[in-house]
Amino acid sequence: MAKCLEPSTEYDKRYLWVDTLLILLIGLNVIALVLHSIEAIEQVYYQHFIYFELLSIAIFTVEYAARIWSCVDTPYYQQQAGSNMQKRLHYIRSPLAIIDLLAILPFYLGFFIQTDLRYLRVFRLLRVFKLSRYSRAMQLLLNVFKEERYSLFAAFSVLFIIMLVAACAMYTLEKDIQPEHFSSIPQAMWWSLVTLTTVGYGDVTPVTGLGRLFGGLITIVGIGMVALPAGILASGFSEQLSRRRQFFQLALDQAFKDGKFAEETEPLLKRLRAELGISHTEAAIMRELMEKRYQTLHFNDTAGR
Amino acid sequence: MAKCLEPSTEYDKRYLWVDTLLILLIGLNVIALVLHSIEAIEQVYYQHFIYFELLSIAIFTVEYAARIWSCVDTPYYQQQAGSNMQKRLHYIRSPLAIIDLLAILPFYLGFFIQTDLRYLRVFRLLRVFKLSRYSRAMQLLLNVFKEERYSLFAAFSVLFIIMLVAACAMYTLEKDIQPEHFSSIPQAMWWSLVTLTTVGYGDVTPVTGLGRLFGGLITIVGIGMVALPAGILASGFSEQLSRRRQFFQLALDQAFKDGKFAEETEPLLKRLRAELGISHTEAAIMRELMEKRYQTLHFNDTAGR
Amino acid sequence: MAKCLEPSTEYDKRYLWVDTLLILLIGLNVIALVLHSIEAIEQVYYQHFIYFELLSIAIFTVEYAARIWSCVDTPYYQQQAGSNMQKRLHYIRSPLAIIDLLAILPFYLGFFIQTDLRYLRVFRLLRVFKLSRYSRAMQLLLNVFKEERYSLFAAFSVLFIIMLVAACAMYTLEKDIQPEHFSSIPQAMWWSLVTLTTVGYGDVTPVTGLGRLFGGLITIVGIGMVALPAGILASGFSEQLSRRRQFFQLALDQAFKDGKFAEETEPLLKRLRAELGISHTEAAIMRELMEKRYQTLHFNDTAGR
Amino acid sequence: MAKCLEPSTEYDKRYLWVDTLLILLIGLNVIALVLHSIEAIEQVYYQHFIYFELLSIAIFTVEYAARIWSCVDTPYYQQQAGSNMQKRLHYIRSPLAIIDLLAILPFYLGFFIQTDLRYLRVFRLLRVFKLSRYSRAMQLLLNVFKEERYSLFAAFSVLFIIMLVAACAMYTLEKDIQPEHFSSIPQAMWWSLVTLTTVGYGDVTPVTGLGRLFGGLITIVGIGMVALPAGILASGFSEQLSRRRQFFQLALDQAFKDGKFAEETEPLLKRLRAELGISHTEAAIMRELMEKRYQTLHFNDTAGR
């Protein structure tokens, strides 16, 4: 059964079908949630929304159970030690399984807890995160975020401290003239956040001369606050790229270890190139540079004999 | 005839003239379209706009026909197999030919379909895309976009999901207090898009305490949403640059393959340098570094004899 | 006593405890400052705020005195020449000690100078900067800012000059139509800053045709003004990264100096890797690339014998 | 006389004095211009502004004449062929000399042309560009802009085309509902520029459902428009940095050309390091890496004997 749910090296049509259907269902769920909030539509198709919700819950519940049941057949868990039960308990605690659970849990909780159903409905949006299973580019993004988490955290700490300072200063400068906007520091924080992030709604703006002088300074600092994460992420993406290139270089070095290209490594290099997302041109250039280097070394070697 | 329309290695004055005239005509078409929308001008020069439109259509139609007819003489299609008819049919389906067709099609469709002419007029703007044929720097931009398309798509998927979550949350928090702005999720999406992109019109803003707390969080996330594509594109441009440098290095390696610079490769390297957009200084430094390396190897080589 | 305040190689539980408590106290101070500004809360808990302030001042004063007293026992000052008194005087002038002083000074000054206490209160926020002692990622940010200070200063100079030009031009173009917003250049500066930083409140916007044409131009220039620091910081972070990699490479070179890996350098490399923030994968790839290179050289060497 | 105006290798106190005074005078001119526009100040100090203007014009005229007269003594022009008159004519046409002329020309033109003096006054701001002579970091910025001019031009062309398309579409969608904001394409351009640059004043926003759908799309495209120049400039700054590093590497290679460091090149390397803006740490790492490489080669070399 795992073959329908998890990718495998052997091409499996059923796997592709089940995946496509699940992605489609998630998309329909999001559309239904959005349409449901429009009163005119909700009043007419009220019944249809309930039927669709029940169908979705049924399918997602079956999917969740099937994934837990079949997780032991995936290559990752086959290599792990432990009984099938232990593996399934381990899988249940993985992020992807938790997202799957959160997608259906609010519905079942609705039976036990008496609450405003409209608030519960919002949690259906969690289903959109089920998509994260399918995108590889998004996993690259997450990787960059993970690698740069300390720098990004520091950048947002700086943003937070500057926001506090700006809010305090503006509270002091403008609270007498605009008590409706700057009567407390938490209120002034709204202005300082909207300004530092360069969103600038304009619902709250300084009006005194001193307030505008200081506000102008904060808009300039805001440029830096936007530039910091851009710079950190740019550096993170470049690093990911250069690391993948280094990794491919390593494989190339291995292929050239006898001084000339080992033909039998060709298919392995091809697969590695695709997996690392290195372009054809790039790989060809790297290989040719390698060949030149070994020719030179060989030349010296022969001359030195 | 192809000589007037497509660039060739031999300098052809007629080609330059035709190109300049076509670029000029596209520019005039854009200016005419913009002026046409100003009522005061339109009422006075109504007749002139019609004459100019007819002239433009005539020239663009001739250009389109000429390009299809002469495409078989271009170097690219001369290397391809197949009859002239097949080549022309292939050319018609190329992006550049489709843009050329779209530039004139609305006019001819106007004869068959009865519709508000003013809406048709907007399609004339498509003519501006005919310019993409002429700019090489824009092709570099497109290249970077193409290489980074998966990362950019993932970034915009993240933006879309966060926009949905923000709209749902704000709809729940503010729909009772501001029913005119947050009465449905699609309406709340307008706010969340304007905030996440840091545009921040200010026509819709949260007013409740909880709404502003969450809204503030979304403005911070907005910084990340702006930083992501900036980071991806910065890494993409750097990669393009380093790849071109590697390519030039490869050519240099070839030129130095006998241990010293082969003078006959000089003109080839010059052309390559210009094509890859590597500066004079850069190329000179790379070559000198190369020379030093070979001198050292030669030195060792002699010592080892 | 220094063991409780400064990090040391030997793991010291008391050090960790004191640090955690101090960080907590700083956080509570910030929260108290923010809550204090909300009138409803201030009126009820007025007394509590005073008690908490007195307690904080007491602890921070003890901390300040303890740090000055014990600074001579830190590794840095033990290596310095001079008497203990000289070392303490030197420490008092260090940025971290000045921040510590500024955190308590306003309170003591309040006894001597008669002023509005609410303004003095804002200075309590300076305590948040005491946190900079504890974050290593923030020190990386500061390092990048320090390295790129000339470029960033130039970028902000360009911003300043363009802001001046934009304000002058808009003052000339709009002062007759909107005298309430553009009656003087300093007033027009508010508009030009808000526009160039892409904040765009919308409280002041050009309304004449010529004003909007010029204003549109300034919005485009604003993109460049945001892009400049982003580009400078991106390049700065990349440089930091490549320098740390080069540094690790240097240590690797040292470890391989006899042509094969010296096992005894293993723990040193491990610590260096952690300190430089280089990932496990990265370090493993670099070491393997090193090994390949030496194998090749060894191969040539043997052949040349 | 050139010694007071142009930097020279020999330290000249008079040169420093004249420069500082000129920079001060430019700063005072900018402040005077800004204060002059404030009516309350202008009415009281009217006479003083005129005196200061006359003094500034006198000094700048003398400076302009002195620079033209003494340009022949600068190292650059001493190396050039041609008579002193030819050199001076050549200098007059250089960008820096033109800026110097523009700083005083409006005043002298005022005698011949009868026009509103307040408009002429704005041109005094051109004097601020005289500062560009003194900043080296700004010359680095200009260099990056110059190197990336084609990419930046392409990016702004894309911005222009998308702005046109957005304006046309919004004009079609909203002109009937908001004739006061979208009655013509040039009027709609104001909205599309303000949105694409993420400034987002909010004075003009779409109100129809279709208009907001399309407007939301344009805000997303706006993120890309901001990211493009950020990416281009980030890559440009990185390239400048790596080129300077390559250049220093070249000099190091030269210093090591006999297999070990040539001590006599030490001062040259020091000056080069300072000129290229490479940090001490960076330079030390590069040199040590170099030493290791030569030790290894030497080791092989000895073994091969």
Automatic annotation (TrEMBL), chains A, B, C, D:
UniProt-listed InterPro entries: Ion_trans_dom, VG_K_chnl, Volt_channel_dom_sf
Record's bilayer topology term: Multi-pass membrane protein
GO MF entries: cAMP binding; voltage-gated potassium channel activity
GO biological process, one term: action potential
Top-level lineage group: Bacteria
All copies of domain Ion transport, residue ranges: 16-243
Family: Belongs to the potassium channel family.
Protein name: Ion transport protein
Naturally occurring in which organism (per UniProt): Arsukibacterium ikkense
Organismal lineage: Bacteria, Pseudomonadati, Pseudomonadota, Gammaproteobacteria, Chromatiales
